[in-house]
Amino acid sequence: MIDIQAIRKDFPLLQQKIYNRPVVYFDNAATTQKPQIVINTINEYYQKYNSNIHRGVHFLSEKTTEAYENARQIIKNYINASFQHEVIFTSGTTESINLVAFSFGEKYIKQDDEVIISQLEHHSNIVPWQMMCERKGAKIKVIPATYNGDLDIAALERLFSDKTKIVCVNHVSNSLGIINPIEKIIQISHSHNVPVLIDGAQGIQHQPVDVNKLDCDFYAFSGHKIYGPTGIGVLYGKEKWLNEMPPYKSGGNMIKTVTFEKTIYNDLPFKYEAGTSNFIGAIGLGAAIKYIENIGKQNIFDYEEMLLHYVSEKISKVPGIRIYGTSDNKICVISFLIENIHHFDTGIMLDKMDIAVRTGNHCNQPTMKFYGIEGTVRASLSFYNTIEEIDYFVESLLQVKKIFA
To answer: Which of 121, 266, 356, 383 sits CB 3.0–4.6 Å from 300 for a disulfide?
Structure first.
């Protein structure tokens, strides 16, 4: 069990009032709040140790370099990667996916080859592959979804051909909260000798992630989704792929030697970390993961599952509400519309009641088109949210209905 009130005190933003009461923050799929230890760690390194990494022999540089590489080790352990150099620091999930789309595409994808993605992907796992396919003359195939939000795995089997080069799917749908059967997808793909990239932006903070057990080839996620800073992300890649793929960006740090005739690239992971990395962000992400580990991942997952059951039951009793993504296999995300009320209007009214939710298409227009709608209201909860907040949220939805009646 976790002490929810003690945990809430660790997050400064949750204590502030925006209008009349402390904010009810139900927009965690967009970004999570930061515990004080992460804020303190970032401040400490800017105030006491700020110096560029891997570029100096003086105390400040060595101190910060050590902390940066220690953060890489923390992440390696958290996702159970085989080697520390399989952990690449990026600016976020979007850059991680773009890195694979460019570098893997350059090495392995040719004209008329095929990339498989799913109906439920975030734009960041669609557009990079479209751009690569346009550049290479390749094609995208799409795994369809059922109306409740589950992927049609039988249909996936039929999509493979001798032209299929990679499968790219999200761990958890950002718009619906549906947990995809990535173990099965990876197993099927590997049976066809096709590697798999998992977009873990919504999975890393809500699901256990063991990249060795999953046997995924790539796993991408963002720091700000897992209680860390913005502007920092991670790409896990199997050593064999990272060694064979060309660099995504060029510049300082990603080289061993440079002459006017030839450049020899650096070893992993630095081959993919051109320029000055967001080293303070990486250190902050390391602090965030240590914070989660101190609470206990399974404690967090169990508590969030309880919240999901509670909010699902409560919101289903609100007259005129329609839930999108009704699969039983999901995280604590509720995507919904209230009959005859625009999602923006619902979001604006909830904001005036000190409740923060997301409205719109959630960077997921193909999924909205699949349901024949423009967007939804999305309430996404985390382990610092409470039963009392859910009760207030549902009461507020009833008030919204009255206002627009």
So the answer is: 383
